[in-house]
Design goal:
InterPro entries: LRR_dom_sf
Helix content: 10-25%
Structural class: alpha/beta
Radius of gyration: 15 Å
Number of helices: 2
Shape: globular
Distance between the termini: 28 Å
């Protein structure tokens, strides 16, 4: 990516229609803190972050940042290294797809506590991410939950 210097091209808070159900951000280089604006979309079911839609090493979700309706989350090509989130942040998530997250160290452990989660898919991620998925699956099995599908 080099030393590209971009400014966010997405308008600030409240600029997106609240009726939005699906949002794809590609090469917008928004900082992860800007996700606080997107979490406010009450009907958002599908969120796709492609090719540095979001940019930055750390994404920390606060407990009050809740994607109430989000069912599908894709993160594809990012420099994200550390992701902090809990099941509270994604109460209805069904499918998580991580593609080419070369720097990501692990999936947040609490993601495994999302009772609606049906699958986590990994493509070209670090071995440590795959290991964290395995730990999540083992924890779910020990709690008597149906095995989480993965690929």
């Amino acid at each position: 990516m080099g030393n590209r210097s971009y400014h966010s091209i997405i308008p600030r808070k409240y600029a997106l229609p609240i009726s939005l159900k699906s949002l794809t951000l590609t090469d917008t280089l928004l900082q992860w803190e800007e996700m606080a604006n997107i979490v406010m979309l009450p009907n958002l079911e599908v969120l796709k972050d492609k090719y540095h839609g979001f940019h930055g090493k750390v994404w920390r979700l606060k407990n009050e940042e809740i994607f109430n309706q989000l069912k599908f989350l894709l993160i594809d090509v990012t420099n994200l290294k550390h992701w902090e989130a809990s099941s509270v942040n994604f109460p209805n998530l069904q499918r998580l797809v991580l593609k080419r997250c070369f720097d990501l160290e692990e999936i947040p452990k609490d993601v495994g506590e999302i009772c609606t989660l049906e699958s986590i898919e990994l493509y070209k991620c670090r071995t440590s991410v795959a290991e964290s998925l395995k730990e999540i699956q083992e924890e779910q099995e020990s709690m008597g939950m149906i095995a989480l599908a993965s690929s």
